[in-house]
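Q: Protein A?
A:
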Amino acid sequence: MLVTLKQIMNLCEAKRCAVGSFNTPNLESVMAVISAAEELDVPVIIQHAEVHEELMPIGIIGPIMIEMAKRAKVPVCVHLDHGENLDYVCRALDLGFTSVMYDGSVLPFEENLANTKMVVAFAKQTGASVEAEIGCMGKRENGSGSVGNGLDPDKVYTNPEQARIFVEETGIDALACSFGTTHGVYLTKPKLDFSVVENVRKEVNIPVVMHGGSGVSEEDFRKAITSGVRKINYYTYMAMAGGGIIAEKLCLGSALTEQECKGESSLAEGKSNKPVMYHDIVSWGTQAMKENCKKAMILFAMKEM
C-alpha cells in the first residue's frame, strides 16, 4: 500500500524504532526491497536519488516504484532522495512520489531555508511529506567526506539551535541530521556523536533521519535509534551484496570457461557446462540484495535476529 513518509514516521515514533529507506535505481532492487519488507511484515521506504538520474531516469523508474508500492502488502513510501534541484523535486511530486527530500545543505542557511519553504508549499498540493537537511555529510556515495576522514566536526555536525529555527519556519516532516555518518563506503571508522541527535530531538518535534547507513556497526545503529533516529538511508552495502554474489558466481571459483564467461555458449561444442543467462544474473543479484535488506530491516526495527 502506498503511504506517505509522515505516516510511516508516526508509526516508528510510536514503536521507538526506525524504518529502512533503500535506494532502488532499477527494477531488481525495487523487487528485492519490497519482497524483504513483505516477508518480515514491516513498512519500508523505496527511494530514487537525483544523483542516479544518469543511471536510471526518474521518469522510467518512478512510475514502476509507485505501482509496486500500491501493490505491496505492507506500507511503502516512495521517496525522492537528495533532490538538489527544485525542478527535479517538482518532477517527483508530479509523478506521484509521496515524499521528497530537498537537500540544500551546501547552501547558506537562509537560502536553504527559503528553498525548503517552497518545497513544502509544493508538496502540500499533492499531500506529500518533506524531508530536508542541515549539516554536511561529505561527498555523495564514496565515503571520503566523513569526520573520520579528517573533516572538522564543528563544520559538519548539525547545530541543534539552527535545527529548531529551520523546522519551525519550514514545517518539514523529517530532518536529516549530520552526526558523523557519510555516504558510500567508509574509508575509516566513523566517529558518531549521538549527543547531536539527542540535542536536536530536544529542540525539534519531528523525526531525525540518518544518512550513510551502510557500514555502521549494529551497536551504533541501536544507539542512533535510541537517540531518536527514525529513518535510516541504506544502499551501498545492499548494492555490494548483489554485485558480490554475481562476481562470485561468474568466473571466480566457478567451473565456467573464459568463453562462457564472455557469454559464448559451449553447448555447440558438446560440453556439459550450462551457459550463464542474463536472467540468472538478475536472480542472483535480486536474492542477495533481498537477504541483505532483511538483515538491515530486522536491525532497524529493533528486533532480534
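Q: Protein B?
A:
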Amino acid sequence: MDRARALLKESGYDGRKVVIISPTDMPFLAPLGDMTADLLKRLGMNVELVATDWGTVLARRASQKPPEEGGWNIFHTTAVAPEFMSPASHLALRGNGRAGWPGWFTDPKLEDLRNTWLRADGEAAQKAVAAEMEREAFQSVPYVPIGTIQQPTAYRNSLKDVLPGTAPVFWNVRKA
C-alpha cells in the first residue's frame, strides 16, 4: 500500500473526486463498488460512491459528461466468457472512442490491430495479431479485469440433453 500511495503521488493525482457508480440490486456487483471505494480511499483518493439500482447505473453510465456534471469514472460489470474470447466480439478491447463501449477508450493502434485480425488469413496469422493486441492492451489498459465468477445453474431432473456452456441455451433440450 505504501508503494501504491507513492506511485499515486508521483502520478500527479490532484485530489480530484473519483466517482464510482455501483448497482445495489445486483449481488455479484454491489460489493465491488464498496471494495473499490475503500481501496481508493485508503490510497488517498477523494472518492464518491454512488450506490443505486442497475437501471440508474446504466443511465448514468451512458453519460459522457465529466463526473462533476453527472458523469462517472469507474463502474463494474461482467460479461459472458465467449464475448471476450475473440477480438471480433470483445467490446472492452475496442479503441474506437466515443463510438465505443462506456468509458470511450481511444486507441487507434488497437483498432488497427483489430481490423488486421479480422482480415488475417488463417489461424496462425490471427494468433500473431492477437498477441500484438494483447501487448498493446497491457500498455494502454482499456479496462481492468478483477476476477471471474461462475454462475451456478440447476435444472430439473426431467430435462435432458441440456447443453453445457457459459450461458443457457434452450435448443436441444427435451423433457423426459
